[in-house]
Write a structure and sequence with these properties.
Blueprint: E1 3-7, E2 19-26, H1 29-37, E3 46-49, E4 55-56, E5 61-68, E6 73-78, E7 83-88, H2 93-102, H3 120-123, E8 127-128, E9 131-132, E10 137-144, E11 150-154, H4 155-158, E12 175-184, H5 195-203, H6 211-225, E13 233-234, E14 243-245, H7 246-255, E15 261-265, E16 268-271, H8 273-279, E17 286-287, E18 290-292, E19 300-302, H9 308-326, E20 335-336
Parallel strand pairs: 2-5, 3-5, 4-20
Antiparallel strand pairs: 1-2, 6-7, 7-12, 8-9, 10-11, 10-12, 13-19, 14-16, 15-16, 17-18, 18-19
Helix pairs in contact: 5-6
Bound molecules: uridine-diphosphate-2(N-acetylglucosaminyl) butyric acid.
Length: about 325
């Protein structure tokens, strides 16, 4: 059923109050197809929501918002090497992680507690503590909006990159992801090489970590650094970590010997945007009911009742300041509507 004038506040983790002219949820492919084939004016804007965790709403949405609520997580096949697990796109991502841990399946424990839905995860190739969804991705099914047919996408068709996929570029707005299948392992090699994770496990006095130990360590770090959207509105990292060339890095490093960075290849270095924003003095800055989180400068927050426009303007001000102080242009990770 399509509702009119629906407040999207419960549907975005920033907790912003914006209205959708029309709103409906769907819990299976048939319902989705029915909604789409009944649409009178296909030129009207449409927005598909998963967990709404990567979204900055700056105005009311004059179109149809569809909330994906396709549920279900199941093991679909298993061999010596891999176990394929399929989940409905409307499942909460962390429920997928918990399912894997409960079944002693490794591969996604480093991505514990990332907010958002299963369907949104491949769209921006979510990642944390050294692992990205592309590393365990098997395939996804998506509804083609022009043909209303289901199509399968394998790893190479998704064109995964750092917080990127084909669904943010060439195929943007053309598909709705309905389920995702990951390739998990029973004999799993844990990836604990990420500095903060290694340190956390040491502090937990865990020497032979299990999948669950790694998940618990990740959860502990995230809870310490990142605000819980149920308490303070936010959408995780607001900006992407910028990648610069070696020449530019040399100059920056000479001026800022402590610059937080990760080498990518011989000529490319990823700079921690959180470090840049922190150094520029924005961390913990509060402007009334919104601001920059006190424990992680990469996260912008809504303390309650803020406007998306104000948060957008704050992000513009930060961008300008980072350009003038470091000569680096930050790119937003969130989807601005
Ligand atoms: N830093 C500061 N000040 C800050 C924040 C960070 O100096 O306010 C420094 C830290 O000390 C560290 C470096 O910057 O040396 C990196 O910080 P952190 O390890 O917290 O990671 P990040 O680069 O800020 C990225 C992802 C996160 C992911 C973590 C862990 C992006 C844009 N963000 O953050 O992903 O959880 O690494 O893997 O790539 C997200 O995308 O929403 C997200 C939360």
């Amino acid at each position: 059923m399509i509702e009119q004038n629906v407040n999207l506040k419960p549907h975005n983790t920033f907790g912003l109050s914006c209205k959708a002219a029309k709103f409906s949820n769907f819990s299976n492919i048939e319902e989705l197809k029915a909604l789409l084939s009944n649409r009178k004016n296909t030129d009207d804007p449409m927005l598909v929501l998963g967990g709404g965790s990567n979204l900055l709403l700056t105005k009311d949405f004059d179109g149809l918002v569809l909330k994906n609520e396709i549920q279900g997580i199941e093991i679909i096949s298993e061999n010596e090497e891999f176990t394929l697990v399929k989940a409905g796109a409307g499942e909460v991502w962390h429920q997928f992680v918990l399912f894997a841990i409960d079944n002693n399946l490794g591969g996604i424990e480093n991505m514990s507690l990332i907010p958002g839905s299963v369907g949104a995860a491949p769209m921006q190739n979510i990642g944390a503590y050294g692992v990205e969804i592309k590393d365990v991705f098997h395939e996804l099914e998506a509804l083609n909006l022009s043909t209303l047919e289901i199509e399968k996408f394998q790893n190479q068709n998704c064109q995964f990159g750092y917080r990127e996929s084909v669904f943010k570029h060439a195929q943007k707005g053309k598909y709705i992801i309905v389920n995702v299948t990951l390739k998990l392992e029973r004999k799993h090699h844990l990836n604990t090489s990420y500095g903060a994770l290694e340190q956390e496990l040491e502090e937990m006095e865990v020497t032979q970590p299990t999948i669950r130990d790694v998940s618990n360590a990740v959860i502990a770090i995230r809870k310490r650094k990142l605000p819980d959207p149920a308490e303070i509105g936010n959408s995780g990292s607001f900006f992407k970590n910028p990648v610069i060339n070696a020449e530019k890095f040399k100059v920056l490093k000479a001026a800022h010997p402590n610059i937080a960075h990760y080498p990518i290849d011989e000529n490319h270095i990823k700079i921690a945007a959180g470090w840049l924003i922190d150094q520029a003095g924005w961390k913990g800055k509060t402007l009334g009911n919104y601001g920059v989180h006190k424990n992680q400068a990469l996260v912008l927050v809504n303390y309650g009742g803020a406007k998306g426009q104000d948060i957008y303007q704050l992000s513009e001000d930060i961008k300008q300041d980072i350009i003038s102080k470091f000569g680096i242009e930050l790119e937003r990770e969130v989807n601005v509507i």
